[in-house]
Design a protein that fits this description.
Elements (H helix, E strand, L loop, with lengths): L1 H8 L3 H5 L7 H18 L1 H18 L1 H4 L32 H37 L1 H15 L3 H12 L3 H27 L3 H8 L4 H37 L11 H8 L8 H28 L1 H4 L2
Helix pairs in contact: 3-13, 4-6, 4-13, 6-7, 6-9, 6-11, 7-9, 8-9, 9-11, 11-12, 11-13, 12-13
Membrane topology: Multi-pass membrane protein
GO biological process, one term: protein transport
Subcellular location: Cell membrane
């Protein structure tokens, strides 16, 4: 009888995560993550975005298993067939290739580009922004004027210029998009640093002998992360559209790679008579862009202290 009562009163994992009095730093951190997750998933639109993005990521990961045909195999006798024709779920393109299989493999390219840009651009912007905000003076002036120059040009136009100079290809497209995407992150990081650098805890750390590098990387960067994460998720759709635009113009992934923008470019010639060739890749770009926007809105509600206080 006693053992049963002890078992029933033993706190479970959920109670441990929701405890108002965490017993360790690890428990407090885990509780904060769990409560943030609960708030994130309580938003129905954010949950929808997570579901769509999860399905797209799973489709990209298991593309070889889910694909019904070789995405590169050509069959001119079966070109421009409508959706559902002889097992081709989304029909075939102008070379008789299965559009469904090419969409699955194209998701890999889009997610690959997004992940690389999301790693490179925010890191570059964080370094430049925190350096400018912490040191101030001529360092701030020079770095921010360079940032203003990049911001003065439309992102796609600047990316086109970089790709034209570097050469067409996925890696060069990633580099070009990263070089055009970092300025907003630098602005955010600089603004955060300007509000932090004169704080009492920064003065205390400086009095203890910490140098600028340690202060920036150990104490300022962690406080900038949440703002940058929000911006990254909201920028994902723009990154995908820029990558698709480069592919549409023939400066991104090169044929026969099944990149969604290139598929739209190929199908535009047949848009009136064979609508599915360009429309279905366009719907895929719309779906992943919408998913990232919904997730970004949800993360802003969770991570932004101004929104959290409402």
């Amino acid at each position: 009888m006693t053992s049963n009562s002890n078992t029933s009163t033993k706190p479970g994992l959920k109670a441990w995560l929701l405890s108002d009095t965490p017993q360790s730093r690890g428990q407090a951190r885990a509780a904060a993550w769990y409560q943030g997750w609960l708030k994130l998933t309580s938003n129905k639109l954010t949950s929808l975005g997570l579901i769509v993005l999860t399905l797209l990521v799973l489709a990209a990961l298991f593309a070889p298993m889910l694909a019904t045909d070789n995405p590169f195999a050509q069959d001119l006798g079966a070109r421009l067939q409508p959706p559902g024709w002889e097992g081709h779920i989304f029909g075939t393109d102008s070379l008789g290739r299965d559009i469904y299989s090419r969409l699955l493999y194209g998701a890999r390219i889009s997610i690959y580009i997004v992940l690389l840009v999301a790693l490179v651009a925010p890191l570059l912007g964080l370094i430049i922004g925190t350096t400018a905000g912490y040191f101030g003076g001529w360092v701030d002036t020079v770095l921010m004027r360079v940032t203003d120059i990049f911001l003065a040009f439309p992102r796609l136009i600047l990316a086109l210029a970089f790709v034209a100079a570097l050469g067409a290809g996925i890696e060069n497209a990633v580099l070009a998009i990263s070089l055009t995407a970092w300025p907003p992150y630098a602005r955010i990081a600089r603004a955060e640093t300007l509000t932090i650098r004169n704080s009492d805890f920064i003065h205390a750390i400086r009095l203890q002998g910490a140098g600028p590098l340690r202060i920036i990387t150990k104490h300022i960067w962690p406080l900038c992360i949440s703002s940058l994460v929000i911006r990254v998720t909201l920028d994902m759709a723009g990154i995908i559209l820029t990558a698709a635009g480069l592919g549409f113009l023939g400066l991104g992934a090169q044929p026969p790679s099944p990149e969604w923008g290139a598929m739209i470019s190929e199908g535009r010639k047949y848009i009136l008579d064979y609508w599915w060739v360009a429309t279905i890749p366009g719907l895929a770009i719309f779906a992943i862009s919408l998913a990232f926007n919904l997730i970004g809105d949800g993360l802003r509600d969770v991570l932004d202290p101004k929104e959290a206080g409402k």
